[in-house]
Input
Amino acid sequence: MSTPATAQGRETRERILDAAAELIAEHGADGTSLDDVRATTRTSKSQLYHYFGDKQGLVQAVTDHQCERVIALHAELLGEVRDWAGLRAWADAIVATIEARAFRGGCPLGTLAAGLADTDETAREHLASAFAAWRGAITAALRRLVENGQLDPAADLDALATATLAAVQGGLLLAKTERDSRPLRIALDAAIQQLHAHTPPRRTVSRSHTKH
Output
């Protein structure tokens, strides 16, 4: 593989990556050929080999590309979370994204993991690292809820973040399969409800009577 030295070359490589990512999201890595990518991007075989080496190199580049894109998006959204309304806004953004895509593709990382985790160890490791980063961003958001007095300091934030991410992944898979956002909404609502179960108990104010 070669890193383009010119702006035009980098733009071409990025365009190929975007198209290949769309094809792999819809058809899977096994169901996407270099000829499919060439036809979609109107590029030559020599260009593909110049930028990516072979199909395995292209799949690895797509995996890295999607990992960076998805994690950057959620890190930004979760970075805005300071309260329950912010967490709900993040959940709403997830639903809006898949609705805008007409429920196709699901989660790019989940789709790649389903197709590659058992057959491509390098891709599996990259995806595992990306999921860990995503889980870390959720944990950081929950930690801010703790700091703002909206989540119990005794709560297991790592476990709650893992459960929340699992709800996202499962909900996206069901939404993709059923072409309906309702299962995703239900999964996210359940995850947030579970988080609410760890709201700090309200303090009771006792009144002292000075007059007898």
